[in-house]
Every structure is written in C-alpha cells, then in structure tokens.
Amino acid sequence: MNAIVPKTRKLHVVTHGCQMNVYDSARMADVLAPLGYTTVDTPEGADMVIMNTCHIRERAADKVFSALGRLRDLKEAGGSKMMIAVTGCVAQAEGDLLLRRAPYVDLVVGPQAYHRLPELIARVHREKKSVLDTDFPADQKFDFLPDAAAFQGVIANLTIQEGCDKFCSFCVVPYTRGAEVSRPAASIIAEAKRMVAQGTREVVLLGQNVNAYHGQGPDGTIWNLARLLLALSEVPELRRLRYTTSHPSDMGEELILAHRDNPALMPFLHLPVQSGSDRMLAAMNRKHKADDFRRIVAKLRDVRPDMAFTSDFIIGHPGETDADFAATMKLVRETGFALAYSFNYSPRPGTPAAGLPQVPDEVKNARLYELQAELRRQQDAFNAATVGLSTPVLFTGLGRHPGQIAGRSLYAQPVVVDSTAPLTGEVHTVKITYANPNSLLGTLTTTKETIAA
Ligand code: SF4
Known about the structure:
Layout: E1 9-15, H1 19-32, E2 37-39, E3 48-53, H2 60-77, E4 83-87, H3 88-101, E5 107-109, H4 117-127, E6 131-133, E7 155-159, E8 161-162, H5 173-176, E9 181-182, H6 185-198, E10 202-206, E11 214-216, E12 222-224, H7 225-233, E13 240-244, H8 253-261, E14 268-270, H9 278-283, H10 290-303, E15 308-315, H11 322-335, E16 339-344, H12 361-384, E17 390-398, E18 404-408, E19 414-418, E20 427-435, E21 440-444
Parallel strand pairs: 1-2, 1-3, 3-4, 4-5, 5-6, 7-10, 10-13, 14-15, 15-16, 19-21
Antiparallel strand pairs: 8-9, 11-12, 17-18, 17-20, 18-19, 20-21
The structure holds iron/sulfur cluster (SF4).
C-alpha cells in the first residue's frame, strides 16, 4: 500500500521579538511539516502565514494590526485561500479583540497551544470560521511537540523554561506566558543530542527566567540550571553552552560556580539589572537591590576572571528622579558592560506601572541618550580590547563576502576571517586584527581545534 503523501503547502512565518519567539517559530514550522508545509521567505502565494508577535514594545498591537492589513490585501488578492494565524504574546493579550478588529484572521493561538496547530487548522476548515485558543492548558506543549526538528544551525536555541512568577511592574510576560514552567531535563538533553547530530555545536538555553529552571531530572530529583548545564556539557560534540534571560535573584551559588567548573559554559552572561537605584528597583518590583547585582558580578569575576556581562535597562520608569538615574549611571560605570540593551519605559496596558504618572518624554530621552552614549563607549572599549588577542572562534558558515568565513567568539561577537577553509562547526584560534562596532576581523592562527573552547 502506498504511504499517503501530504499535499505540499507553503508556510511563511513572521517573527517579532525575542529569541524565545524565534525558537517557537521554528517549532511551529516543525509541527506543520508533517502536514506538508514547507517554509517560504515571502507571504506572496503562501497557503498559511503565521505572525508570531511580541508585546514588549510600545504600540505592539497597533503594529500587528497594520501588518495584518497588508496580509488581508494579499489574502483577498489570492481569492482568500491564504490562512492567517496570529500567535505569540499579542495573540495571548488581545485574543477576542484581535478577531473583532481583524475578522479575516483565521487563527489566534497563545504561546502554550502551538502543539495543537494541526487540530486548530482542521477546525478552521471544518467550522469555516475563525478559531481562538489562548488557554494555559494543563498539558505541557513540550510533551506534544514533535521530535523531528529542522536544523537551526551551528548555534541553536533550545527553550527549557517558560513563563514568569515575578510580576515586574512594567512587564506583560506573567500575563501572556503564564506561570513559570520548566521542561523535564531528559527531554531537553534528548533535544540537544538531536541538534548535535544535525551539526549544532553551541546551544543557547532559553527561558523568560532561565536561571529559575527547576525541572524534573532523569533521576527523579529536581534539577537546577547548574545541574542541567553539567548534563548538557557531557553531550559529545556539544562545545558551547549559554543561557538567557536570567534574573539576579535566581543567580545561586551553584550556578555561579558552574561558570568556573563547567568548561562548556561561556564566560558571558546576560543579566538584566534594569536600574541602579534601589528606590526604582523596589518600584519595579524587581526583588533585588543594586548591590545584589554588584555582588553577583564580583563573584562571577572572582571565579571566572574573563567573565563579561550584558544587561537590560529601563529608563524613565514612573517615579524615576535625576538621583535615581545618576545611580544607574554609577552602576553602569562601575560594572563595565560588553553590551547592553536600553529602552525608555513605555506603559503596557494591564501592568501595574501603566497607570502611574509618567516621566515626561523629553526627560526620558535625555537620560537614555546619556546612558546609551556610555554603553556604546563601553562596548567599543570591550571590542577594541580584543584586538591583538588570540581567541577561540566557533565557525558557523560563510561570511557575507566571497572568500570569508564567519563565526562567534566566546562573547558571541561575530568574527570574520579571510579563508575558504571548510571549518563550519569547528573551533579554531583566531588572532583578532580589527574591531568594528558590531563585529571583529581576524586571521586564523591555527587549523587545529582548540580544546579550551
Ligand atoms: S522577571 Fe523578566 S519576565 Fe518576569 S516579570 Fe520581570 S521582566 Fe518580565
């Protein structure tokens, strides 16, 4: 008997926001692959378009609606055969409203329901009406996502934890992603092994509160992130591990020591502090003080002297004074960041800080300008300090120009080398010769893989 081959269909996925959305988009494509969907780069002619949305930025919903308007035109031009799905945090937050304002959308699916996409698509066809699924189901989506996954690349993301119980005053994540949930370690290790078999050599563990990870271990005990990282470091050929995004309150002793003891763990940590003012940190409900952050940074530098840090800052949270901002600048100057992301506070509907009196835009803008100038200076200094050093680089593929190959440093800086050697997936020592604002140039000093990285 012949196997039933599903009809080939074109899927276009638009991804907004964080790395977790990038991972989710890839997994949605994996879920739909057995139905015959293959991904295409443009929405024109696609059978299905998924808009995987993010609610972090201001007016996120407005931007989604204007992008949806363009898709509606395409859908109408193609005789309405294109199915439009909205997923991610805007889908979760706006739900019904989204379908009322954009009735041509066929599916609205929250982040916890991606594994049900085939069933939801079938319902749209069967019921000939739009379908909404934004529940936080009791079953975990990770138990139902398929094992087969498309190759993400030499560097790949792997979500190990979702949701957040911290309720920072400015953030929608606890409302859109729900309570903290950790995947069992065995399924994470199995997924990492599958990635490595496909050619991945660096895995970035993802979670909204990744260092709050507390998943069931294969031995029946609850594993923390340090324990999970140790198990992953034992996966043959998995050379590098990173994790993001961390919260200072969950930066325990064991995890700090893992940066000393686990050779696969990169000396680079994204640790959002948001503000250097204790008054603002309390107003933000951050559950840590500025000195807690300083202590963590000092301890990490103590156990791993080559540690470098990135962070997030929110400027102009309601109530922020000049003195609060000065405390942030002080912390930034004292710490010295390799890179940092900084934004003006903007209210998210439904979050506690949204209803408070706001700092005027011109004040926020002036503070942000000052902060970003300092952060840019620090980033340039960090990159410039690598010139002349020999450093291990994990090669990820061809560079943008012919005759170049590209990879990543220990600090995830893009590194470009003039070479045509087939080094993808290998770690080699590169002498850095020049620092651009966002990348480094270098020359290969050895073609032998270094063990150190
Ligand atoms: S810890 Fe992070 S994800 Fe959780 S509420 Fe705060 S900012 Fe949002």
